[in-house]
Amino acid sequence: MTTDGTEATKVRRVKDGWATEVRDLLAAEEPMEIRLAAAHESGSRVETVAVTMRTPGDDFELAAGFLFTEGIVRRSSDIQSIEHDNETPSRLRHATNVVRVTLREGIAYDAARAKRNFFMTSSCGICGKMSIEAIKVRDVAALPSCRPSIRAEVVEGLPDRLREGQKIFAATGGLHAAGLFDASGTLHSLREDVGRHNAVDKLVGEQLLAGRIPLHEFVLGVSGRGSFEIMQKAAVAGIPVVVAVGAPSSLSVALAQEFGMTLVGFARRGSFNVYSGEERVVGVLA
């Protein structure tokens, strides 16, 4: 594997009936184990809370973003340190695939709930009203009702700007992207990963560790569909507007409506659909 999240392989490329052997780049995919360390009355305890398939890179941000969007930590100050765990043996191939997050003394967490949340979200095992209620009880900060406002032409241009920033996708064609934009369409940060939810967690983790949460003045652009997981993570991070290249699900629309979020799907030059929060999209003729 290279240091840029890609892996080289040989392929037989067939064109017009002729086969040639060429070198191709693939998006790298490896498991990452997230371990949580915290002090308890019985002493320090280290537990695995999740194993996710991801594109190596920005692993500390991914761990922080996952723990935050799943409600295990509430702020960056809950985290004392993030490091690769080289002390405890793991079945994973490389030590760099194991990340240990140590919580500050006095920060409590429910390990069973953390594991249950990860299992259910990764296997799509939760549904409907229970899913949305589970987010509401976590005291997610209220979103601003009328901002940011974003012009229709900016919405249409976000997918192109997102694609322009995807360096690994340009080389492999195999990654999702999550980009953080301001209302003028300026790209502030972008993360790529084989998992769409991982890309968002990397982006949110970066902002969390920099102390910028909540992200009330920003727009999240995603290269795939507007899934429930994407909307959940955006809501927790305080992002009012989500623009997706693909379709939303019925549950993601319900979540957007419940939290007062703007959800745009099928965004492309010349058209897009607004499923919720149309008041934030301006410059549209009725």
3D architecture notes:
The chain is α/β, with parallel strands linked by helices. The protein folds into two domains: 30-136, Ubiquitin-like (UB roll), CATH 3.10.20; 150-282, Cytidine Deaminase, domain 2, CATH 3.40.140.10. It has helices at residues 59-69, 111-122, 128-136, 152-164, 167-172, 196-209, 228-237, 250-259; strands at residues 6-15, 18-27, 30-40, 43-54, 79-84, 98-103, 150-151, 176-181, 187-193, 219-222, 241-244, 262-268, 271-276, 281-282. The strands form four sheets. It has a six-stranded mixed beta sheet. The radius of gyration is 20 Å and the shape is flat. The model is unreliable at 122-127 (pLDDT under 50).
Identify the notable features of this structure and list them briefly.
286 residues, alpha/beta, Ubiquitin-like (UB roll), Cytidine Deaminase, domain 2, 2 domains, six-stranded mixed beta sheet, four-stranded mixed beta sheet, 8 helices, 30% helix, flat
Widest sheet: strand order?
A: 9-8-10-11-12-13
Mean pLDDT: 85
Discrete helix count? 8
Characterize the overall form. Answer: flat
> Mind telling me the CATH superfamily name of the largest domain?
Cytidine Deaminase, domain 2
Based on CA atoms alone, the radius of gyration comes out at: 20 Å
Distance between the termini: 51 Å
